[in-house]
Structure formats: C-alpha cells, structure tokens
Amino acid sequence: MPVLPPAPFPLSRPRRLRRTPALRDLVREDRLSVDDLIWPLFVCDGAGVTQEVASMPGVIRRSVDLIVEAAEEAAGLGIPAICLFPYTDRALKTDGCEEAWNPDNLSNRAIRAVKAAVPDIAVMTDVALDPYNAQGHDGIVRDGEIVNDESVAALVKMALAQAEAGADILGPSDMMDGRIGAMRAALEDAGHTGVTIMSYAAKYASAFYGPFRDAVGASGALTGDKKTYQIDPLNGDEGLRCVARDLAEGADMVMVKPGLPYLDLCRRVKDAFAVPTFAYQVSGEYAMIRAAAANGWIDGEAVMMESLMAFRRAGCDGVLTYFAPDAARRLRAG
Ligand code: PBG
Q1: Of 91, 73, 163, 176, which Cα lies nearest the Cα of 129?
Q2: Which of 29, 101, 285, 328 could bond 157 through an S-S bridge, CB–CB 3.0 to 4.6 Å?
Q3: 128 lines ligand 1 (CB under 6 A)
Q4: What span, in angstroms and rounded, lies between the C-alpha atoms of 333 and 301?
Q5: Which residues is 279 bridged to in the sheet?
Q6: Tens of pLDDT along 14-60?
Q7: Which of 133, 173, 321 is the best mutation target for the ligand 1 pocket, counting ligand atoms within 8 Å of the beta carbon and taking the most?
C-alpha cells in the first residue's frame, strides 16, 4: 500500500506521466520478457508428422523429429523452457496406465531427442495418468473411484522414467494427495537430486481445459469429471493450502491453473510464499483469444501481449502459454 495517499488534483495529475512514450517507458512498473515463457508442445507418433488441433488454431501436434525442430526454434527465440504432452494411441491406454512409465514412451523419447539436440533448453514434463488411462482420468480408476495412493505409486514410476530420460522440470498435474513428497523421496533415492518439480499446486476443476483434452486425445476417453481431485473454482483458500502443502513436500516451484480467471490466486500465492510462481494460460483461454481475433472482434496480437502482462502484474515469474513463440517474436521485435 502507498505510504501516503496521492496529492489532490491539480497537484497530482496522473496524466502528466502518461503524456509521452518516453515518460511512459520511464515509469513502467514491470516488464514481460522472453525469459518468462514456457512453451507447451504436443507430441505424436511418426516422423515428419504434423496434425492440427481444431479447437486450438495455430497449435499442432508434432512427431519427435519436429519437436526437436520446435525446441531449436524456441532456443533461437530465447525461450528458456518447453513442456511436452503426448498424444497417445488409444491402443496404449489401459486401466493400469502402464505406458506412463515405459522408458520408451512417446514423451520419454521426445525428452531424450530434445536433450541430445538442444541440451540447454529446459524440458518440462506432465506427470499425470490421463494420456494413458483408458478412462481419461489423471489417476487409476477402481469401481468408478479415482484411487489416491495407488495412483501416487504409479505417478512416482512415471516421474522416475521422465527424470531418467533427462527431464529438467517435472510437472505433476494430477492433484492426488501426497504425490510431491513421494516423488521427491524417490528422486532423491535414485540420485536425481537436481531434477526440479513445478507442482500444479492450485489446479482447479475447470471447463477451460476442453481444447487440451482434444489435443492429447483424452476427450473421448474421459468418463465423468475431475471434481474429486481438482479444486472447486470457488475455493481460493484451499488453493493456498495446496500450495503450502506442495512446498512442504519438496516442490521447487508452484503453478496456478487456469491463468487469467485465477489471477487472484497468483497474487495471493506470491505474497504468501515468495517462491517461484507460475501460471498456466490454458487451452480454453488460448482458444477464446484466437477465436475472437479470427472473427476480427479483438486485436489478437495486442490481447495476447496484454494477457501475458497481466501474469507479471499478478506476481508470476513466468507463464506456460501456447502463444510463447508468437509472444517471443513480438518481444524481440521491440
Ligand atoms: C492433465 C493436464 C490437463 C492440462 C494440463 N495437464 C488437463 C486436465 O487436467 O484435464 C490442461 C492444459 C490446458 O488446458 O491447456 N492432467
């Protein structure tokens, strides 16, 4: 809060400092930088394959060789990290989700290929069972219930396989209880002491994930909803408690998800914990901006940049966004 209230008009005229670009540059409080961006990428099978995601115009799935090219593009633009999501063949989805910890699954092959070709870019993963689960859930389903502890044991195996493949940042997005502590202990035991965890800590049961589920081929598979593990959208305090818990269990960074509709959480998390705080501008947020821009209803580029600036203002250190390469190009152009 300001120490003193502003002087009364006309002693104070806030428009004086808005009068010219130079004055506006001088007093701008924050900056959005390429360093703040994490680019989520969808991986599919094959070689030389690209597939469009209808509900996310401009987003494509790429086979591993083209993921490597995207990683090179990201590195060239100065984007520090990419995040990989696999589009898994239906035939590989099972009740036990065994493909999740296959050392040669799509995601782990992509991690290895990127780390071999572009070693300096940070590779983030998704730790959740939904791409591999016959019922599309992030945990294992028994008699219609998403069982916690058995899911955590599976997620630990998945996380270890990703660490083994060379992942720099594990992103547990599953929202099971106790997963961060279990993963951290297993990583330490296995000697992966330098692998970081960015916990999807305040992750809400949101309708904004719809297009993503198309992108990873989980929409058709999902039975029911995720409300028994993801947080109720009206519960801000619960989000804070989940952040506190994940930090206590060994998370290095935390995430709020979705992004713009949950900016209050970003600010509260940063103020309460002063730890590296990230937001995920999710697929539905991306799709809305793209769709309105395609209709000529908004200036898509300007809204893209403004939406990303909002995360900085709300206290985020960075943001996962499908706009990452476009925003990076725009930032580099000045
Ligand atoms: C899977 C996962 C989801 C997203 C990231 N990891 C979907 C979900 O929880 O259903 C959503 C990302 C987006 O919408 O862009 N656990």
Answers
A1: 176
A2: 101
A3: yes
A4: 13
A5: 256, 319
A6: 999 999 999 999 999 999 999 999 999 999 999 999 999 999 999 99
A7: 173
